[in-house]
Amino acid sequence: MSRSLFPSAALLVSGVIAVLIGAGIVLNPVGFHATAGIHLGAGDSALLNEMRAAGGPILAIGLLALAALFARRFRAVALTASAFFYTGYGLARFASLMVDGVPDQMMVWITLLELVVGAACFIGAASSQRRGAAV
């Protein structure tokens, strides 16, 4: 993949993942989390409120990443925000793995995916800035 396409690919992958996850959590937190073996209390309005609220920023990061594919002036901020977002999630899950023990295998794969996508966004941001582009 050429250097000029890598940042766009990173934005596309990170944006699509975040939009799907964010929308899934906002629209159906019980069903979304059940796909990962996490069972939320369907009648617990405070917990559901908290879950939906957490889905909002995930959706927003995804929309920012996708918007940056069309509005180049947002690329630097979108790549950097996505990099910190995914890496932050991955490192927090890794810390949980160390403190709480090994979760379901799916959660381990999700951790790895988050770290890889975060690294790709960091690389995309760095490569865009090295080229001197207005990203």
Overview of this structure, please?
It is a single chain. The chain contains 5 helices and no strands. It has 135 residues and is an all-alpha fold. The protein has one domain. Helices cover 77% and strands 0% of the residues.
The total count of strands amounts to 0
Q: What gross morphology would you assign?
A: globular
H/E element sequence: HHHHH
Q: How does the helix and strand content classify structurally? A: mainly alpha
- Fraction of residues in helices? over 70%
Number of domains: 1
Biggest sheet overview? none
Q: How would you classify the quaternary structure?
A: single chain
Gyration radius, in Å:
16 Å
Q: In whole angstroms, how far apart are the ends? A: 17 Å
Q: Beta-strand percentage?
A: under 5%
Low-confidence stretches: none
Mean pLDDT: 91
Number of helical segments with 4 or more residues: 5
What brief labels describe this structure?
0% strand; mainly alpha; 135 residues
